[in-house]
Amino acid sequence: MSNAVTNHPSNKPVAIAIAAMTGGKFTDDPVPPCGNCRQVIAEEELKSKKPVRIILSGEKRIWIIESSSHLLPMQFNKKNLKPDLP
Prior knowledge:
The protein is of the alpha+beta class and 86 residues long. The chain has one domain. Helices cover 23% and strands 21% of the residues. It is built from two helices and five strands; from the N terminus they run H-E-E-E-H-E-E. The chain has helices at residues 2-7, 35-48, and strands spanning 15-19, 21-22, 25-26, 53-57, 62-65. The strands form two sheets. The chain has a three-stranded mixed sheet, with no helix packed on it. It has a two-stranded antiparallel sheet with strand order 2-3. It is globular and about 50 Å long.
């Protein structure tokens, strides 16, 4: 995500797919993005003012999440910052 928005700023991401492997095979269950990745996706959504669909794929099931807000219900964003500090 970081590479895409840095090197292709005019192309806004609409989705990201995540899959993980162990022992040379895809995991049975989907693996969610780490906290840092969740924050990067959330910040891109705020910047572009559009949700990024997150597709989590495992061997036995696929989860489709419509926005990082479903992964980060209490996400840190610019609303948490106070610009009028003394």
